[in-house]
Amino acid sequence: MIVVDQDDPLPPFEQIRTQLADRIRAGQLTEGQRLPSIRQLASDLRLAPGTVARAYGELEAAGLVESSRVGGTRVRAGQAADAALRDAAREFVAVARRHGMSLPDVLGAIRAEWSGTEPGPAAVPRSGPRPASVPGVEGGG
């Protein structure tokens, strides 16, 4: 399920791109798996087709998917993180949840570790997202 939160400051195309990229890297969308057509996903999410096209274009530019008129948009080979990294992420999330950390807090901690700095204040929570079920895209949400 792809979720677009109209209250999120991130533009809808970026929310779509991020969610799909995360699922590809997590192995939830696998090599060769076909994504919904631009028109179908736009209709399901009640967005303009150009919004979805931009998200798909950015995924293609990042090398995560490939598109063709005949085959549609499919996940490229070798894009999922390896099993050890996914296991480490799963364990990290479990520990963070046990400590009551929010997603913004966890992402801040990761960014701080990545850059070698102290984490900053967490983002202010926003109103909840509006989910849309997307045929052909399973998991997450």
From TrEMBL:
UniProt domain HTH gntR-type: residue ranges: 10-78
Keywords: DNA-binding, Transcription, Transcription regulation
Region (Disordered): 115-141
InterPro entries: Tscrpt_reg_HTH_GntR (IPR000524), WH-like_DNA-bd_sf (IPR036388), WH_DNA-bd_sf (IPR036390)
One annotated GO molecular function: DNA binding
Domain of life assignment: Bacteria
Organism: Saccharomonospora piscinae
Gene3D superfamilies: Winged helix-like DNA-binding domain superfamily/Winged helix DNA-binding domain
Coiled coil: none
Residues passing through the membrane, by range: none
Protein name listed in UniProt: HTH gntR-type domain-containing protein
